[in-house]
Amino acid sequence: MYYYIYQSPLGEIALTANDNGLTSLAFQQGKSPISLSGLCLAEAKFTQVIQQLNEYFAGERKRFQLALDPKGTSFQKQVWQALTNIPCGETKSYGWIAKSINNAKAVRAVGTANGANPIALIVPCHRVIGSNGKLTGYAGGLALKAKLLMHEGAQFRV
Predict the structure, then answer these.
(1) What is the pLDDT of residue 33?
(2) In CATH, what number is assigned to the domain containing residue 10?
(3) 0.85 exceeded by pTM
(4) Neighbouring C-beta atoms of residue 35, cutoff 10 Å
């Protein structure tokens, strides 16, 4: 396993990967910083990720195209895949995600899976808000979620 600390305009982002792809991305100032002990610092493994993050923060990239290898249950992976279909600048509700995976009654489970997303930003869990348009929980904190959505030009209520 490899890691790199990316200096974003919104603070340090920890990246981890294995030989199959990116395994996690976390804002280190958030509620769920990644422990990097035992991992090997390897900037060269993250060249493509760094380039795409630079483009995203410069407003030049709307969708990431990276090899991902998140660890989770099949249900979680199904939810995370659905998250990648939310376009930059748009938001969706937990109910919308549940319906998009053909499991309309699984709204709470979708919320739990969304919260367990190990690859924040790239798997855009920050684009999921309440059905009333208000911000809901985010591992990086609601202020960071609001900043990300404002950066993308998304509409939401506080």
Answers:
(1) 85
(2) 3.30.160.70
(3) yes
(4) 10
pLDDT tens, residue by residue, 40-55: 999 999 999 999 999 9
User: Helix or strand or coil: residue 28?
Assistant: coil
Q: Domain for residue 157, yes or no?
A: no
Task: Summarize pLDDT for 76-107 with one digit per residue, the tens.
Answer: 999 999 999 999 999 999 999 999 999 999 99
85 and 45, same structural domain? Answer: no
Q: Structural domain of residue 107, as residue ranges? A: 74-152
The partner residues of 18 in beta bridges, in order of sequence, read: 21
Question: Active site residue: 68, 121, 125, 135, which one?
Answer: 125
Is 125 in the active site?
Answer: yes
**Which 3 state secondary structure label does DSSP give 92?**
strand
CB 43 within 8 A of CB 30: no
Q: Are 31 and 141 in contact (CB under 8 A)?
A: yes
Instruction: Tell me how many domains the chain contains.
Output: 2
> What distance in Å separates the CA atoms of residue 11 and residue 29, rounded to the nearest whole number?
7
What mean pLDDT is reported for the chain?
95
The span from the CA of 155 to the CA of 140, in Å, is: 19
The tens digit of pLDDT for each residue in 18-27 reads 999 999 999 9
